[in-house]
Specification:
265 residues; alpha/beta; TIM Barrel; 8-stranded parallel β-barrel
């Protein structure tokens, strides 16, 4: 079997990194996906030497979820450059902290609601978006590749958009870039991401796993309608890192218990 590993997300109920480590160890998981949406997980609030000490002592590893609003294709240059600089700073921090992967979203951006339809600005001006998105990730990917930090982009119901696909096709040419398959986002958004993901299957290196029921996601496995066994079989076959992406301590404990009872992890 390839290096299939199971991790947990940083949770808003956990006040500190050490609390997160304690839960990760209690559940005998392999890694933690830190989350820069949480102030406790800002890079200036996480001491690199402490993370490395924990990594070495407890044989844990880390990934980092970048801010949900980090729009790498935003048209406003000072804002875009700020996100690029944050990414480069995070890569430098990650190199010294034992963090192996940064996970980004692709942002749909603003939209105009017309009487008969919604028009996405990035769709209308896709050439501008693609150029800016590509420039942002060129710099980010170069920095990541030099430091051995993977750069991944996660689906969130927008991989079906033409501007997103063209931007991703451009960026995936860069060394060290890949895709995160969020199987719950895929399912809850009526599989609009799925065709593109399957066309780029060899770029998928990371997974966010949670169940769904209709549009409701981040559910405990086997409480919804998603074929969790199929998704985890895919992850095992390809040696992915898999975050069990539920949102509470109780849900995480239940998820790990259920998956182990079914001998899926």
């Amino acid at each position: 079997m390839k290096n299939f590993r199971i991790g947990m997300p940083a949770l808003i109920e956990l006040a500190s990194f050490d609390d997160t480590v304690d839960l990760c160890r209690e559940l005998s998981l392999d890694f933690i996906e830190l989350n820069m949406n949480l102030p406790s997980n800002f890079i200036e609030n996480l001491d690199s030497s402490h993370l490395m000490s924990v990594k070495e002592k407890h044989k844990l590893s880390y990934t980092m979820h970048m801010p949900d609003d980090a729009d790498m294709g935003v048209f406003f240059e000072p804002v875009r450059k700020g996100y690029v600089q944050l990414s480069i700073d995070t890569i430098e921090w990650a190199y010294h902290s034992g963090v192996e992967l940064l996970n980004f979203h692709i942002i749909e951006g603003a939209k105009m609601t017309l009487p008969d339809r919604k028009v996405y600005i990035y769709d209308q001006y896709e050439d501008v978006f693609i150029a800016k998105f590509t420039e942002s990730f060129l710099k980010t990917a170069e920095a990541g590749f030099k430091k051995g930090v993977k750069i991944n982009i996660e689906n969130s119901g927008n991989f079906g958009n033409s501007f997103a696909q063209k931007a991703l096709n451009s960026v995936l040419r860069f060394k060290g870039t890949g895709l995160t398959w969020d199987v719950g986002h895929d399912s809850a958004k009526n599989y609009v991401d799925h065709d593109f993901l399957m066309k780029k299957i060899d770029f998928i290196s990371h997974m966010h796993c949670h169940d769904t029921l209709g549009a409701k996601d981040h559910l405990v496995p086997f409480t919804g309608e998603l074929d969790i066994e199929n998704r985890l079989a895919f992850a095992k076959e390809r040696g992915l890192t898999v975050v069990i992406e539920v949102k509470t301590i109780a849900a995480l404990k239940e998820s790990i218990y259920v998956l182990r009872q079914k001998k899926l992890i």
